[in-house]
Amino acid sequence: SQTIHQWPATLVQPVGSPLSLECTVEGTSNPNLYWYRQAAGRGLQLLFYSVGIGQISSEVPQNLSASRPQDRQFILSSKKLLLSDSGFYLCAWSLSRDTQYFGPGTRLTVL
Amino acid sequence: GNSVTQMEGPVTLSEEAFLTINCTYTATGYPSLFWYVQYPGEGLQLLLKATKADDKGSNKGFEATYRKETTSFHLEKGSVQVSDSAVYFCALGPYSGAGSYQLTFGKGTKLSVIP
Lengths: 111, 115
Hints:
The complex is a heterodimer of chains A (111) and B (115).
Chain A: E1 3-7, E2 10-13, E3 19-26, E4 32-38, E5 44-52, E6 55-58, E7 64-70, E8 73-78, E9 87-94, E10 101-102, E11 106-110
Chain B: E1 3-6, E2 11-14, E3 19-21, E4 23-26, E5 33-38, E6 44-50, E7 56-59, E8 62-65, E9 75-77, E10 86-92, E11 104-105, E12 109-114
Parallel strand pairs in B: 2-12
Antiparallel strand pairs in B: 1-4, 3-9, 5-6, 5-10, 7-8, 8-9, 10-11, 10-12
Protein backbone atom coordinates (compact mmCIF):
# COMPACT_ATOMS: atom_id res chain seq x y z
CA SER A 1 0.00 0.00 0.00
CA GLN A 2 1.02 3.59 -0.51
CA THR A 3 2.17 5.86 2.27
CA ILE A 4 3.17 9.51 2.32
CA HIS A 5 5.55 11.07 4.81
CA GLN A 6 6.24 14.68 5.68
CA TRP A 7 8.85 16.19 7.92
CA PRO A 8 9.32 17.91 10.10
CA ALA A 9 5.95 17.69 11.79
CA THR A 10 6.33 21.10 13.39
CA LEU A 11 8.73 23.96 12.80
CA VAL A 12 9.25 27.37 14.36
CA GLN A 13 11.43 29.71 12.32
CA PRO A 14 12.37 33.40 12.56
CA VAL A 15 11.42 35.86 9.84
CA GLY A 16 14.06 35.95 7.13
CA SER A 17 15.34 32.43 7.73
CA PRO A 18 15.36 29.72 5.03
CA LEU A 19 12.90 26.86 4.83
CA SER A 20 13.00 23.30 3.60
CA LEU A 21 10.06 20.92 3.97
CA GLU A 22 10.26 17.41 2.63
CA CYS A 23 7.65 14.99 1.36
CA THR A 24 8.19 11.41 0.23
CA VAL A 25 5.80 8.81 -1.13
CA GLU A 26 6.25 5.06 -0.87
CA GLY A 27 4.57 2.21 -2.69
CA THR A 28 3.91 3.85 -6.05
CA SER A 29 5.77 5.09 -9.08
CA ASN A 30 5.57 8.34 -11.03
CA PRO A 31 2.91 9.97 -8.84
CA ASN A 32 1.66 13.49 -9.30
CA LEU A 33 2.77 15.48 -6.25
CA TYR A 34 1.24 18.58 -4.69
CA TRP A 35 1.99 21.19 -2.02
CA TYR A 36 -0.93 22.92 -0.30
CA ARG A 37 -1.04 25.54 2.42
CA GLN A 38 -3.84 25.78 4.95
CA ALA A 39 -3.76 29.11 6.78
CA ALA A 40 -5.67 29.56 10.03
CA GLY A 41 -9.38 29.97 9.40
CA ARG A 42 -8.98 29.58 5.65
CA GLY A 43 -9.33 26.79 3.16
CA LEU A 44 -6.67 24.93 1.25
CA GLN A 45 -4.54 26.74 -1.28
CA LEU A 46 -2.65 24.79 -3.92
CA LEU A 47 0.91 26.12 -4.11
CA PHE A 48 2.73 23.77 -6.51
CA TYR A 49 2.22 20.53 -8.33
CA SER A 50 4.54 18.21 -10.24
CA VAL A 51 3.80 15.54 -12.82
CA GLY A 52 7.38 14.27 -13.03
CA ILE A 53 10.99 14.72 -11.94
CA GLY A 54 12.09 18.31 -12.46
CA GLN A 55 8.62 19.40 -13.61
CA ILE A 56 7.09 22.00 -11.31
CA SER A 57 4.00 24.13 -11.86
CA SER A 58 3.30 27.08 -9.63
CA GLU A 59 -0.26 28.07 -8.88
CA VAL A 60 0.42 31.12 -6.74
CA PRO A 61 3.32 33.58 -7.11
CA GLN A 62 5.14 34.02 -3.81
CA ASN A 63 8.50 33.66 -2.11
CA LEU A 64 8.22 29.87 -1.97
CA SER A 65 9.65 27.39 -4.46
CA ALA A 66 9.38 23.65 -5.00
CA SER A 67 11.65 20.98 -6.39
CA ARG A 68 11.34 17.33 -7.28
CA PRO A 69 14.81 15.80 -7.30
CA GLN A 70 13.56 12.21 -7.30
CA ASP A 71 10.42 10.47 -8.51
CA ARG A 72 8.85 10.22 -5.05
CA GLN A 73 10.37 13.22 -3.32
CA PHE A 74 8.94 16.72 -3.26
CA ILE A 75 10.59 19.63 -1.45
CA LEU A 76 9.17 23.04 -0.54
CA SER A 77 11.69 25.79 0.05
CA SER A 78 12.10 29.44 0.79
CA LYS A 79 15.20 31.61 0.96
CA LYS A 80 13.63 34.12 3.38
CA LEU A 81 10.49 33.40 5.35
CA LEU A 82 7.78 36.00 5.89
CA LEU A 83 5.30 36.15 8.76
CA SER A 84 2.56 35.40 6.24
CA ASP A 85 4.19 32.05 5.43
CA SER A 86 2.92 30.63 8.72
CA GLY A 87 0.42 27.83 8.25
CA PHE A 88 -0.14 24.13 7.89
CA TYR A 89 1.61 22.70 4.83
CA LEU A 90 0.21 19.58 3.28
CA CYS A 91 1.75 17.36 0.64
CA ALA A 92 -0.45 15.13 -1.48
CA TRP A 93 -0.06 12.58 -4.24
CA SER A 94 -2.25 11.14 -6.97
CA LEU A 95 -2.02 8.74 -9.91
CA SER A 96 -4.59 10.59 -11.96
CA ARG A 97 -6.09 14.02 -12.22
CA ASP A 98 -8.60 13.51 -9.46
CA THR A 99 -8.26 11.58 -6.21
CA GLN A 100 -5.49 13.04 -4.09
CA TYR A 101 -4.09 11.49 -0.90
CA PHE A 102 -2.66 13.74 1.75
CA GLY A 103 0.25 13.49 4.14
CA PRO A 104 0.15 14.30 7.87
CA GLY A 105 1.24 17.91 7.34
CA THR A 106 3.86 20.29 8.74
CA ARG A 107 2.87 23.07 11.11
CA LEU A 108 5.08 26.11 10.37
CA THR A 109 5.17 29.11 12.67
CA VAL A 110 7.17 32.12 11.56
CA LEU A 111 8.01 34.55 14.38
CA GLY B 1 -14.39 28.80 -13.01
CA ASN B 2 -14.98 25.94 -10.63
CA SER B 3 -16.20 26.70 -7.12
CA VAL B 4 -17.52 24.88 -4.07
CA THR B 5 -19.85 26.29 -1.44
CA GLN B 6 -20.19 24.52 1.89
CA MET B 7 -22.46 25.32 4.76
CA GLU B 8 -20.63 27.34 7.34
CA GLY B 9 -20.00 25.88 10.73
CA PRO B 10 -19.39 25.16 13.37
CA VAL B 11 -22.00 22.45 13.67
CA THR B 12 -22.62 20.98 17.11
CA LEU B 13 -24.66 17.81 17.48
CA SER B 14 -25.44 15.36 20.22
CA GLU B 15 -24.26 11.80 19.85
CA GLU B 16 -26.57 9.67 17.66
CA ALA B 17 -28.06 12.72 15.95
CA PHE B 18 -28.50 12.89 12.18
CA LEU B 19 -25.89 14.86 10.26
CA THR B 20 -26.21 16.80 7.02
CA ILE B 21 -23.48 19.06 5.67
CA ASN B 22 -24.54 20.85 2.52
CA CYS B 23 -22.25 21.24 -0.46
CA THR B 24 -23.05 22.79 -3.82
CA TYR B 25 -20.72 23.35 -6.72
CA THR B 26 -20.22 25.20 -9.98
CA ALA B 27 -18.17 23.39 -12.57
CA THR B 28 -17.34 22.95 -16.21
CA GLY B 29 -18.03 19.45 -17.44
CA TYR B 30 -18.67 16.54 -15.11
CA PRO B 31 -15.94 16.41 -12.50
CA SER B 32 -15.52 13.94 -9.66
CA LEU B 33 -16.72 15.04 -6.24
CA PHE B 34 -15.09 14.29 -2.90
CA TRP B 35 -15.50 14.61 0.81
CA TYR B 36 -12.35 14.80 2.89
CA VAL B 37 -12.13 14.77 6.69
CA GLN B 38 -9.46 16.43 8.82
CA TYR B 39 -9.05 15.42 12.46
CA PRO B 40 -7.32 17.91 14.77
CA GLY B 41 -3.65 18.35 13.97
CA GLU B 42 -3.72 15.88 11.09
CA GLY B 43 -3.76 15.90 7.31
CA LEU B 44 -6.82 15.34 5.15
CA GLN B 45 -8.22 11.86 4.69
CA LEU B 46 -10.40 10.88 1.77
CA LEU B 47 -13.81 10.00 3.20
CA LEU B 48 -15.74 9.21 0.02
CA LYS B 49 -16.01 10.11 -3.63
CA ALA B 50 -18.38 9.95 -6.58
CA THR B 51 -17.29 10.13 -10.19
CA LYS B 52 -20.53 10.64 -12.13
CA ALA B 53 -24.10 11.82 -11.77
CA ASP B 54 -26.32 9.74 -9.44
CA ASP B 55 -23.31 7.91 -7.99
CA LYS B 56 -23.46 7.46 -4.23
CA GLY B 57 -20.21 7.48 -2.32
CA SER B 58 -20.20 5.84 1.11
CA ASN B 59 -17.73 5.06 3.88
CA LYS B 60 -17.86 4.61 7.67
CA GLY B 61 -21.60 5.29 7.72
CA PHE B 62 -21.28 8.54 5.74
CA GLU B 63 -23.01 8.93 2.38
CA ALA B 64 -23.20 11.53 -0.38
CA THR B 65 -24.96 11.42 -3.74
CA TYR B 66 -23.75 13.26 -6.85
CA ARG B 67 -26.80 15.32 -7.91
CA LYS B 68 -26.21 16.94 -11.28
CA GLU B 69 -29.66 18.55 -11.44
CA THR B 70 -29.12 20.44 -8.18
CA THR B 71 -25.29 20.60 -8.47
CA SER B 72 -25.04 19.24 -4.95
CA PHE B 73 -23.09 16.63 -3.00
CA HIS B 74 -24.47 16.79 0.54
CA LEU B 75 -22.81 14.67 3.22
CA GLU B 76 -25.07 12.66 5.54
CA LYS B 77 -24.73 10.27 8.44
CA GLY B 78 -27.60 8.71 10.28
CA SER B 79 -26.06 8.58 13.75
CA VAL B 80 -22.93 10.56 14.59
CA GLN B 81 -20.39 9.61 17.24
CA VAL B 82 -18.01 11.69 19.30
CA SER B 83 -15.19 10.29 17.17
CA ASP B 84 -16.72 11.98 14.09
CA SER B 85 -15.73 15.39 15.47
CA ALA B 86 -13.53 16.90 12.76
CA VAL B 87 -13.50 19.38 9.89
CA TYR B 88 -15.15 18.18 6.69
CA PHE B 89 -14.17 19.48 3.26
CA CYS B 90 -16.15 19.13 0.07
CA ALA B 91 -13.98 19.16 -3.06
CA LEU B 92 -14.40 19.24 -6.80
CA GLY B 93 -12.09 17.43 -9.17
CA PRO B 94 -10.47 19.09 -12.17
CA TYR B 95 -12.09 19.14 -15.57
CA SER B 96 -9.83 16.93 -17.64
CA GLY B 97 -10.33 18.97 -20.76
CA ALA B 98 -8.92 22.04 -19.09
CA GLY B 99 -5.61 20.36 -18.29
CA SER B 100 -5.87 21.34 -14.66
CA TYR B 101 -4.68 19.24 -11.73
CA GLN B 102 -6.23 21.39 -9.05
CA LEU B 103 -8.89 20.17 -6.67
CA THR B 104 -11.26 22.97 -5.70
CA PHE B 105 -12.04 22.84 -1.98
CA GLY B 106 -14.82 24.32 0.07
CA LYS B 107 -13.84 26.25 3.18
CA GLY B 108 -14.59 23.35 5.49
CA THR B 109 -17.26 22.69 8.10
CA LYS B 110 -16.24 22.00 11.67
CA LEU B 111 -18.34 19.34 13.36
CA SER B 112 -18.38 18.85 17.11
CA VAL B 113 -20.29 15.90 18.55
CA ILE B 114 -21.04 16.02 22.26
CA PRO B 115 -21.85 12.96 24.41
